[in-house]
Amino acid sequence: MRASVLVSEYLVYIPAAIILNRKLGRIRGLSSWESSVALVAVLMQPATILIDHAHFQYNTVMLGFTLASISSILAGRALWGCVFFVAALCYKQMALYYAPAMFAYLVGICAVQGFNFSRFFSIAVVTIMSFAVCFAPLLLGSIYDQYRGISAFTAREALLPPLLAELPISFNEQSWYFPPLLQLTQSIHRIFPFARGLFEDKVANMWCAIHTAHKLTQYPLGQMQRISTVVTLISILPSTMTISLFPRAELLPWAMASTAWGFYLCSFQVHEKSVLLPLLPMTILLGSDGGLGTELRAWIGWANMLGVWTLFPLLKRDELRMPYGVLTLLWSYLLGLPPTSLSLYFGRQSSNGGLNILTKLVHLGFYVVMIAWHMGEAFVPPPEGKPDLWVVLNVLIGFAGF
After folding, report:
1. What is the pLDDT of residue 142?
2. On the CB side of 46, how many CA atoms lie within 13 Å of its CA?
3. Considering the entire predicted model, what is its pTM?
4. Which of 8, 49, 298, 314 is in the most buried spot, having the most CB atoms within 10 Å?
């Protein structure tokens, strides 16, 4: 089973990453050495490797389709970009973190320089048809089950999706259209898991950080859903407005990273592994103009190191401390980051158009805190009344950094 993760990565993620990296390199005129280093940094991203190959997930398939979508748009093939992005959404709904940026960009290319109806119509048709192809096996299968006399559910109250149950229309459960309608509404219900709670376990986002000091469980779940939705929309508004008003393809990774951070920090039902989504579009920027320069490399590297550090409590439960240490140190060595190198902050690189003093203080301060946290977590047992002390500190420090 674990080999299937590797196979799917070689079939989808790695080819998409190579094609996008080469496209960015050609656009910006980067040398083959710079493009190669950036590509290795993307493929060796420690958080992605540890979650997919050690924690055992298939996130790289969804991320690969997303990279293919960005690459198609950079090549001027917006329709293929829609196809690949729909594939990412249908494979794993976490790709919704990127959807506002993608939607805003597509609206922008259709509307900013005069409304282009033919482009808008073709994008709409291709997107709808792509969703239809992805959902066709599920919907047709439910119709075939109905034909064979297999009931869609056995207990109406237990299995009827809330979206369908709340409609002011009664449906004939024996009709041919009811099974696909049931499957469609059930899929939508699963895509938006509001019934599962505000956050998953202990994750370095706003709600979990606030919950450590002020218990949010005292508020009605519906109220927290509305609050989190409003806060998330506010957090993604600047980037979506920018990419919509100035729809330049090279800005798309920036906008996708921004909206993904907004969802990770503010949205409803966030899992620790969701940090992979904002980290990917940030990391592919290493292959763009100035990506391996001092400032971008320092910020992208710091975000990745902080991101994988926030995953440590999850990885520890899976007994992955050794792979975590090895992969993280190898990646930091590749990009010349602390704790393996201080060249970005001191020395020749820092003196030639390097980082300002505030950036140095923030980055190095967090690196020191992360190392100190590891030392404390390894050697200092938490008090009896606070068994999750180190995990909570991880959440608070991670949220502050993000």
Report:
1. 83
2. 29
3. 0.92
4. 298
